[in-house]
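FAQ: What does the model actually see?

It sees only this:
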Amino acid sequence: MKKFAFILLFFTNVYSAEVDNFTGRFQSNLNDSTKIFNNKTNEYFKKGLKNANFGLLRCNERKLYFHLQRYLNSTFFGKIVRWVNETNTLDKNFISVDKSIYRDFVLSESIVLGFIAKLRSVHSPNLKMGDVYLGSDKFEHFFSSGFRYFTSMYIKRKGIKKTLMIGLKEEYGILGRIPTGVISYADLAADFNGMRFWNHVLQKNNDILGKKFNFGPYVKCKRKKWVLVKKMDWSRYLDHSMDEAINCSQFKKLSMVKKVKNRLKGIGTFEKRVVSCPIDKSKLKEMVEKYKRFAPFFINQEGHRVVDMKDNPLVKLKDMDKF
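And it is asked to produce this:
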């Protein structure tokens, strides 16, 4: 029991930051952060390569990924997510829990939002990348969980079924449903796209969505040194699948769904209409069409609802012989 409590506390601090993509969305006119974010990402890329090129091991792939992750990883293990949350160079919209659509949650519904939020901040800031509105927590999933997806799929060759199970088990378990009561499909979309990014670093495999999405390689070995041959551009990866107001979350209890929907009634757009999730069905449809057969595992077309543990992507994936 003590071990479980420690694990829960650890993951709650590392991964369980939540985001409200509704409150203040229509009132805050955020500047596009893509250019600044691109510059910082490529700066970290170069620093990682510099470290990877130091020493006797030349163009060693394990060494390359190790040093890239020193910069491109989660808050605890890398620098980029911490930079996103702390820098003043990005235009951000921060919504505290007591002003968010989750403000009515209690401890029996959500350990994080109903209890821990009263002790410390657990929300991530929102920012705008192109026309995509998303929380900074998505970059944590993109780099950290994305690398675990990449390792499973392309290094250990476990296949896409077992790879997708990584995020689904976490979101329906210790990183989502258990600590927060929220199952974030947008987090799962960030995991998937992070896998695509890490595959593009050396681009030894075609992109899982098809060759037209082969954006790499970003790095090549030249004269026994890793060289950045193409710059990272966030517009290739970020889309509306990572926006929780379009790719809606699900909740552990029906009471949570009712509380969120009630709060949404009080949020008006400039058109003074009632907000519901998804706020743009056409953009959600675009995501379903983009991800095709993978969409059911991280695109939610049902809106805000209580999760049915007998009818969720995790169960469906387990029951599929071939995928």
